[in-house]
Structure to design on (900 residues):
DNA sequence: CATGAATGAGTATTCATTCAT
DNA sequence: TATGAATGAATACTCATTCAT
């Protein structure tokens, strides 16, 4: 089971990841920016991006309304930063996995486990990622797309590598497979988040899904021959 | 290829389908309600649900702002009705397919083709279905969920039937598979809509996906025996 | 007890009183205009002029929305016509009373009884007259004022006549008295309408008020001299 | 003549009177809430409650539209607060008068002078109190009624006290008298406000009315004996 | 850095009125 | 006369953002 779950959910300050919008802070507050992001996850999950009020996020974070604008350009930027932060962490984890010297099947299994495992226990985050991100077509196209493409490429590269190694059927389209895999994971996470979000649900789903998919992708050693 | 594509996208007036909100009108306009729905698809796809202005929809439909409120309770109701209308048509098609006396694999293949084929050539509708529907968590939970559950159950029942018939592996979870399948289709449609929406892209994707998935789900006749 | 109560409340067609807005009607409907006016009294009383919807009045009158505009210029005109109609009837009754060859005290007593008696049993009308009429400052100033002045003058003339006849004190200002008398009657009617509107309440109030006021206005025959 | 006239019309900030809706503000503006209320009096008097635009009130008060909603729940609340504020001041003045150790006649005279004197010179306020308050039946019944009942009870108690002291006739109904008295004062103020609002008009009217009414209520010491 | 009072642009919705039938 | 579907002007209210303190 992935142990970087908590870091993904934002416990670690991870100052090196502050690529956008963050301003240098003195040591006064531990990390006000992170506090705001976590408050935003809660509020976005509960109300949705558009219905969420900046003042609510501020209140949930225990800061004044205006303070949010010291750390983020505007409300959009809060959502984008949220996605950006968490997605970068996921990407880093996926890349690390992809770089391992493992069998392709093992890698894909780990990737599936990783992604669903990250959300397991973080229903709010899952809801934000699966639902809220689509709330602004503009945000989706403008900011999410690039990272998303990176994500798909990591998966696709693992598939392609597997094909070169002879472990995966040649007639499979790597990028299409990546799209379908992401969709399947997203769909499972969505129904899990909107439904009961039962503990262990995602972990179990990850395992079953991996088995089925990999069986479909595996190159058959001349069946019946 | 499904030939009811156009009816799904709303070409046919289909007055008998006026289940919700519609009021009986005199024969003045052929079908003003349908005109509004189609205008809404365009505007929602271009701007997103929240950024879409009711007045824009009215203008695109060639009616006065107030007229929209003769056919729909409010802006939310337009989106919900849209989903409701189109989803019911998809469901009917899926059920018909599921009821056929075909092999399970054939049925699943047809279902995948049906769903992606319906969106092929209707980029706007695809974008509304894959993106806009998630714009309001409330709408999603309240209205979309029930129909969505019906959808999942149709797929799951086909899978379960295949298991009973010995065509599909026993260790597969029908409902989870349905969720993953829907997610994969949704993900493919989303990336297609947000990307180039190249002609034939969905149709091709449907075929490839079907092949891969079904291979993974198929019961192996004692490999190597 | 006044016996023209019912005519005041609009039972009689009173075609001669149709001074404003009314259009000649064929004998088709008994009196659609009157039906609309009575419906308006009900709706105005229940909702107030501004909150009252034209469509509600139409529905209460059993006609189509558009029909109202065949009999009245607009919504304002309905309220104005209402006041005009009823006020003219009251004025006619008051004038008749004032012209009688009675003692001044008797006349004033009758006037008080007449006015409150007219409203007794017509709570809706009472509420419209005491409350709704003031809902539009413009209406009040523009339309109600002239009739209202006529009303005050009838009262004032009776008072002045009483002074000339030596029945009423010389130091009383007739017009001020008329204003106060109307105010008192209006205030009593208002509290009656907004309160329980208990049967007989107005009639009883009329008698008591008359006694008190007249005692105050009566010329004392050299008390103690 | 009452010297608290100006305080009634709102000249004094009277921060202690901020019973409803007001939020504590920093010392920026002297009293923004009061400024809004006074602007509202002007606009309501000129246009009537319904025709008055919130933006007009804001402009007249020299604040932004939104600022009004920092001090009042909505437009209704502005009118209600207006009435509430001013009525409480009147009630306090009346109660003080009623509590004095004076003869009943003197008290009633003072009460009449007080009430009309308060409006003298404040035509706008007079118009709001006599006209606008009745513009919303709901407001009238819900908010004004309780304070109004208190008002009537103060008057009625003075009358009843006079009866016990033998100064006022036994056959007079205290509460009815209060209703009539209020109505008379209201009627006089209304006609004054809608008419020329000539200076001194109300003061003069107060004196004459007091004389007449009190004469009618006074217990006669065995006339002719 | 932090605050939160003040701002004012922006829009869904209503409903009086019209007019083709 | 009568209808009622269609119109579209008109406005209270919200809330992201700013900036004086």
């Amino acid at each position: 089971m992935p142990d970087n779950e908590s870091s993904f959910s934002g416990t670690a300050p991870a100052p090196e990841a502050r690529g956008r919008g963050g301003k240098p802070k003195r040591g006064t507050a531990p990390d006000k920016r992170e506090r705001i992001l976590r408050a935003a996850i809660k509020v976005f999950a509960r109300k949705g991006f558009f219905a969420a009020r900046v003042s609510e996020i501020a209140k949930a974070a225990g800061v004044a309304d205006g303070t949010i604008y010291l750390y983020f350009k505007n409300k959009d930027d809060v959502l984008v930063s949220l996605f950006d932060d968490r997605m970068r962490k996921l990407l880093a984890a996926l890349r690390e996995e992809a770089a391992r010297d493992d069998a392709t099947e093992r890698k894909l299994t780990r990737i599936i486990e990783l992604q669903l495992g990250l959300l397991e226990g973080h229903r709010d985050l899952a809801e934000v990622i699966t639902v809220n991100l689509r709330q602004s077509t503009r945000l989706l196209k403008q900011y999410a797309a690039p990272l998303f493409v990176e994500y798909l490429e990591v998966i696709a590269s693992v598939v392609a590598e597997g094909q070169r190694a002879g472990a995966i059927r040649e007639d499979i389209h790597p990028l299409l497979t990546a799209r379908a895999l992401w969709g399947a994971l997203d769909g499972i996470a969505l129904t899990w988040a909107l439904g009961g979000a039962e503990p262990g649900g995602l972990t179990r789903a990850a395992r079953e899904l991996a088995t089925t998919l990999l069986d479909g992708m595996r190159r058959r050693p001349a069946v019946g021959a």
Q: What stands out?
A: Chain D has one domain: 4-217. Residues 120 and 152 of chain D are 21 Å apart (CA to CA).
